[in-house]
Amino acid sequence: MGSELIYRGSETQPSSDSYSPKPVKPWASVTRTIHYLLREQRLLFVFVGIAIATLIFTVFPTSPAPYVAPHSRFTTLIPDSITYFPIETQQKFSSAHRLGFGSANPTSKIPLGLKRKGLRIVVTGGAGFVGSHLVDRLIARGDSVIVVDNFFTGRKQNVMHHFGNPNFELIRHDVVEPLLLEVDQIYHLACPASPVHYKFNPVKTIKTNVVGTLNMLGLAKRVGARFLLTSTSEVYGDPLQHPQKETYWGNVNPIGVRSCYDEGKRTAETLTMDYHRGAGVEVRIARIFNTYGPRMCIDDGRVVSNFVAQALRKEPLTVYGDGKQTRSFQYVSDLVEGLMRLMEGEHIGPFNLGNPGEFTMLELAEVVQETIDPNAKIEFRPNTEDDPHKRKPDISRAKELLGWEPMVSLRKGLPLMVSDFRQRIFGDHKEGSNTNNASSS
């Protein structure tokens, strides 16, 4: 019988079972890994590799991590911009906690029997009169010194005797431009100090005091260095207090011909204290009174150098005004000692650094006559504008807190300066004799 198709619409066709995946076997991933390792002797190669690595680390142990000194600049995470912190945060940036160069307070006392480690120190204006004598002392102490000077008033001859010394570097640079160094201490002396020089370009003078100080404070902040500002007795102006104490605020003409220097230094002191209070920078402030000695600029307009140069040249000693205005004069070695004690002490300052022995201009002229030429004449000229009538430091604070006071009298120090000036004016002394005399004093 032939086949036929029969349609039965009312009948329901049996449906096939729906798809379902195989159930996951327990430990499938573990067994799969084991099978993989057992095939082709892979497990053997794993053990061989472990054995080789163990042998290498046993025979060649890893060297210890290099010691990173607490004063490494790369640990410094403080931003360059000034940020003001609450008191609790400022305490974290004190000398015991701060990061960067100088954080371990390298100027603290060294225990007996241990050799003092030399510091790395930058001296701005280090080729100048005071700066070069400071460099001599620091080099003799065993420190590494970087001199930064633009040679406006500084002289390369002042530091030439250090050329070839591996602990000495000289950079021709103007502090008005930023400078990147890694140092422990900064002595900031860069600024023309005599009226002839700072009046030559008053705008440049105030830029050096303000922008230059900002740049050096920024450097101190970045690397954690201690910063010393050499301010001046000129911040007292024509003082109404005599002698002048550090607490005296001064009597300064803000628009006078000397204000580029006077107000510039006052602003530099303000910046220094603001960096200390706001950014935790360790700072020191010295207010320097009249200083004399070898390596002074011969024709810089300051009274001691003027009198000595004029007497040597057989010229009249020029006294401005009636000659009754007073000054105090300290020898340069005394000043350098005071600066170093201030830097290494624990007191911020400001500190007056000067000789309280007071001389009128006529008395100074007489001392120069006695030292050089008793027949030297004195010539009076009109006084200069804003010339202070009295200037004498009260150094009781420096005596008490720094244990410092001047040791060289005017009659003892002046001949050493005369010897240097005579050699530079006439060339009749051996080269280097002035340096030996200065260091021996």
Describe this structure in words.
- This protein is of the alpha/beta class and 441 residues long.
- It has helices spanning 28-38, 42-59, 87-92, 129-141, 195-198, 202-223, 259-279, 303-312, 332-344, 361-371, 396-402, 410-426, 433-440, and strands at residues 120-124, 144-149, 168-172, 185-188, 226-232, 283-288, 291-292, 317-320, 326-328, 330-331, 351-353, 358-360, 378-381.
- The protein has a domain at 73-108 and 116-292 and 330-356 and 392-407: Rossmann fold (3-Layer(aba) Sandwich), CATH 3.40.50.
- Strands 3-2-1-4-5-6-11 form a seven-stranded parallel sheet, sandwiched between helices.
- α6 (202-223) packs parallel to α7 (259-279) and α8 (303-312) packs parallel to α10.
- The longest helix has 22 residues, at 202-223.
- It is elongated and about 120 Å long.
- Residues 1-7, 64-108 and 429-441 have low confidence and may be disordered.
> Poorly predicted ranges (pLDDT <50, ≥5 residues)?
1-7, 64-108, 429-441
- Considering DSSP H and I runs of 4 or more, what fraction of the residues is helical? 25-40%
Largest sheet: 7 strands, parallel
Count of DSSP E strands?
A: 13
- The dominant shape is elongated
Work out the radius of gyration: 37 Å
What portion of residues belong to β-strands? 5-15%
Number of helices: 13
- How confident overall, as mean pLDDT? 81
Oligomer: single chain
Find the structural class using helix and strand composition.
alpha/beta
The CATH class of the domain at 73-108 and 116-292 and 330-356 and 392-407, by name, is Alpha Beta
Return the string of H and E elements.
HHHEHEEEHHEHEEHEEEHEEHEHHH
Strand order within the widest sheet?
3-2-1-4-5-6-11
Based on the coordinates given, report the CATH architecture of the domain at 73-108 and 116-292 and 330-356 and 392-407. 3-Layer(aba) Sandwich
* Fourth CATH level, the homologous superfamily of the domain at 73-108 and 116-292 and 330-356 and 392-407: NAD(P)-binding Rossmann-like Domain
The CATH topology of the domain at 73-108 and 116-292 and 330-356 and 392-407 comes to Rossmann fold
